[in-house]
Amino acid sequence: MSEKKIKNIFVDGPIKPAFIADSIAKHSEKTAIGGHSIFMGQVRKDEIEGKFISAIDYTAYEDLALEKMHQIREDIFEKYPLNCMHIYHSLGKVKTGEICLFVFTSSAHRKPAIAACSEVVDRLKAELPIWGKEIFEDETHQWKENI
Amino acid sequence: MSEKKIKNIFVDGPIKPAFIADSIAKHSEKTAIGGHSIFMGQVRKDEIEGKFISAIDYTAYEDLALEKMHQIREDIFEKYPLNCMHIYHSLGKVKTGEICLFVFTSSAHRKPAIAACSEVVDRLKAELPIWGKEIFEDETHQWKENI
Amino acid sequence: MKIEMISFGKIAEFINNQKIDVDGIADTDAFKQYLENQFPALKSMKYKLALNKNIIQENTEITNNATIAIMPPFSGG
Amino acid sequence: MKIEMISFGKIAEFINNQKIDVDGIADTDAFKQYLENQFPALKSMKYKLALNKNIIQENTEITNNATIAIMPPFSGG
Known about the structure:
heterotetramer, A: 147 residues, alpha+beta, Aldehyde Oxidoreductase, domain 3, eight-stranded mixed beta sheet, 3 helices, 8 strands, C: alpha+beta, Ubiquitin-like (UB roll)
């Protein structure tokens, strides 16, 4: 087995636009990059039986999620010629309109960055042990299900 | 013919990360959105026959480009269930490592935003009358060609 | 045999993290049986087990001091 | 007949924006002929015309006071 350097992806609470801007700005030194692809998940104010969601409270089996993410990262770097890939997922409460997921891939030409970003999002949703508890405005809740 | 509200897409010089952050932040009020897709083009420091590119100077046939972009925008909104779409392209000098293109699409679920973003980038590159003059460090230049 | 049970999401609402000391649970199929007897609500739910941080796809032997996670369908992102 | 010529990118390096007053240029094919005679460098280049902001795909009639853009391959993004 290859030596693992497990990176953390979890951040406490919502992912702020300023954090994303910072992450983008850091890439101006990487002048081999020609295209960046970003996906951001935002908490929707869904209405369910007359009640509106006010936030999602995320929990994860962190160790296992980070191991899985490491595998996905390795697969994706093997499959696409990427210059970088950054992934952040919220834990704890993220209110409607706030960002809970930030996936950022970069490559010399646009197509690998775009394809990799989309694939990472798909795999992350299917494979990472993360759970979202949808909290309604009246403090009741239900558990999110990825369709 | 439908009444046209032609939006400007051109910005003077590079697109700054803070501008992108601002654009993201504005969407926190739009609580029907669940997924955002972003593409950013960054000027590469390519080496050509021993010389490095230091900047790209963009010009456009602006009127025609905005009309074409309007058509593309209408096509894409017809094709995908998007909540919003924002497009910005630099004119004038953009240095290596700086951002010259910013495409931002949002939808309730992730797939339309991702597909629309990628399609807009493809069409914009193929169809908009914009030209990039690649300026080398020694002030000589060559004209960019989209492959 | 000692097993550490941890649970997540919706399942954590009715199965607390706990250490159990039981005999006769040789593999993950037997563990599922045990679980569903103890917590009948599980019977009608989809869930996966992870044995020592490996997600279980097929019946797997359980050794002493194993950690088993009980996980409802994932909903990250 | 009066035609306003505008050019872009690489082509703007050797064809200035200008108004010309010529006869016998009835359509865009004739205009191309005229252009390539005046600016032989064009012959070996790829370019497209836009007549009054419509990109020309097939030979099109030119009317008086037309604006014709001469455009090398696009390279935005």
